Amino acid sequence: MPHLFFEYSGNLEIDTQATLLRLNEALVGSGHFDENSIKARAIRLDDFLVGTQPQARRAFMHLRLTILSGRTPEVKKQIADLLVATVQKEQAWPEGAQVQITAEVIDMQREIYGKQVL
């Protein structure tokens, strides 16, 4: 816990390792997560469509963070905003393209979450 899923449209050039590191550092900096508990992965989506106009220059990034239940909606919103702000920084955005960045924070039920560290 937590698990970070970073999905992005294949028409974006992303340095995934650098981006994942910045995201993990931001999550640690939030004070809500231990450094070694964050599991992040990047998923490039080559089959995608934004809207109904296939020829439009559109792209997206979506961040989904699953965390153990117990945090307030306000804290989860702060974390979602932090994730969006973090990926927005230092990216080389394609000229003339519309890029949508979204984030959601989802609770995992603490009572039924299993974990083993070996």
Structural class: alpha/beta
Fold-level CATH name:
Macrophage Migration Inhibitory Factor
How far apart are the first and last residues' alpha carbons, in Å? 15 Å
Biggest sheet overview: 4 strands, mixed
CATH superfamily annotation: Macrophage Migration Inhibitory Factor
CATH architecture: 2-Layer Sandwich
* Major β-sheet strand ordering: 2-1-3-4
Sum up the overall morphology in one term. Answer: elongated
Are there runs of 5+ residues with pLDDT below 50, and where?
none
Arithmetic mean of pLDDT:
93
Task: Give descriptors for this structure.
Macrophage Migration Inhibitory Factor, 118 residues, four-stranded mixed sheet, alpha/beta
Question: Which SSEs are present, and which pair or pack?
Answer:
Layout: E1 3-9, H1 16-29, E2 39-45, E3 58-68, H2 73-88, E4 98-108
Parallel strand pairs: 1-2, 3-4
Antiparallel strand pairs: 1-3
Helix pairs in contact: 1-2
Tell me what the structure shows:
This protein has one domain: 2-Layer Sandwich (Macrophage Migration Inhibitory Factor). It has helices at 16-29, 73-88, and strands at residues 3-9, 39-45, 58-68, 98-108. α1 (16-29) packs antiparallel against α2. It is of the alpha/beta class. The protein is elongated. The mean pLDDT is 93. Strands 2-1-3-4 form a 4-stranded mixed β-sheet, covered by helices on one side.
